[in-house]
Amino acid sequence: MVKLLVVMIAAVLVVAIAILSVQNATLVPLIFLGGQTVPLPVGIWVALALGVGMLGSALLLSLLMSTKKSRP
Known about the structure:
Blueprint: H1 2-23, E1 27-28, E2 31-32, E3 35-36, E4 40-41, H2 42-70
């Protein structure tokens, strides 16, 4: 049941990003710490942020789970 929920959430996010990309195709450069990035559509930036957040949370959860298992 949990795996189905995870897949459904991921599918909804992919569809939402696709709709956002189609509706808003204007190129947007991000300025971060004084540096400017390559202009990309908003949907691509959202997808990148979502992907980095998912990878970061998965890494954090795996690190937390490994420390809990190693404790006696």
